[in-house]
Amino acid sequence: MGEFSAPILRVNKLNKQFGAGCSHCSGKHRQLDKNYCPVCATVYSCQDISFDLYPGEVLGIVGESGSGKSTLMRCLYFDQEVTEGEAYLTPYKDGSSNLFQESSQQKRFIRNHLMGKVYQNPVMGLRMDFSSIGNIAEKMIAAGSRNVAAMELRGSELLERVHIPVYRMKEAPKNFSGGMQQRVQIAKAMSNNPPILLLDEVTTGLDLSVQANVLDLIKHLQRELNISILLVSHDLGVIRMLADRTMVMLDGQVVEQGLTDQILEDPQHAYTQQLVHSML
Ligand code: ADP
Ligand code: MG
Fold first, then answer.
1. For residue range 64-92, what is the model confidence (pLDDT) as tens digits?
2. Which residue intervals define the domain ABC transporter in the entry (predicted)?
């Protein structure tokens, strides 16, 4: 936990909208219906999202479906382009360059070397017909690895670490259970030793016992490797289990952020109060 060190990732006023906006919704005091302009149908999925992520910390992002969590993660991983905003990564050009202004080639470098992402839907993160170890090799090749033997060794170490048995490494993820598919995604995301992991609803839809196992795995890996994690979930229980600090999103905006314990004990925003009370 690095509250006293400099952030590893700084995000400043990230905005993502779908649609061009109109005179009704473009002003400072726009009247939206949740995140949606009733006049021109523009969706304001992320509105002025700002936060810091510290080395070795887990920052939880919680909010109901449609609050903009996945859009935020997609923007940070360059799956989608932001409408506006800045992000600075300390391991990249000493944190001096806004990542969103970088060339697509540089973005690819950042994504392959400095970040790993696990998607809610494993189809988004894996090639279901490739071997599991081949999926991992793909990310290593994208980051410049060429030595097949070294990649096999690293891939099998990673799969062992996420508890995929050695004899199943050549099997395709389509043969695996949902929990195992998420484990392969986690192994792939970690393959280049990135300092940051983006986890988007990684356990949503899994059986509770499987969910607990995957969360436990994440917790152990995080402690062992001291990775910084952005952990997105609609489930406050998941956030409570893993996140040091938490950010609460509603309709594309951050309505509250602070230490997870404090948010659970003394939620300030009406929406957070409702979330906390519904968990008890
Ligand atoms: P969450 O992950 O919190 O459930 P999302 O980030 O998926 O929320 O969605 C946030 C909002 O953005 C929703 O209102 C959603 O309908 C909208 N949205 C997401 N992607 C698009 C898109 N490609 N076009 C239009 N609206 C979108
Ligand atoms: Mg989502």
1. 999 999 999 999 999 999 999 999 999 99
2. 9-276
